[in-house]
Amino acid sequence: MCDESYNGWANRETWAFVLHCDNTIGADYVAELVSGRVVSNDSDYDLGDHLVDVVGDMWADDPPAEWVSLMRDDVGSVWRIDLCEVGRYARECVSERV
What we know:
The longest helix is centred in the N-terminal third of the chain and has 28 residues, at 12-39. The mean pLDDT is 89. The protein has one domain (12-97). It has helices at residues 12-39, 44-59, 66-75, 83-97. Helix 1 packs across helix 2 (44-59). It is 70% helix and 0% strand.
């Protein structure tokens, strides 16, 4: 089995997704997107799944915003994103906001 980790994340797709969230939409907006779910004690997987779904819906806009297109192109395979890692990132965004 080969190690696919990338810059401290599970793989390149997870890293790219979080990088774009941090640099483009920002931790405050990420926290806003998941804050109600964090309060309900969702698992990291569920939080990550929710955040990827919300951003994925933006990818389907016609035409998508420029940052959305860049993110989609950089991430590539959404199915490879580690949802638990994204959920932990989202949880950190919420805790930093408080």
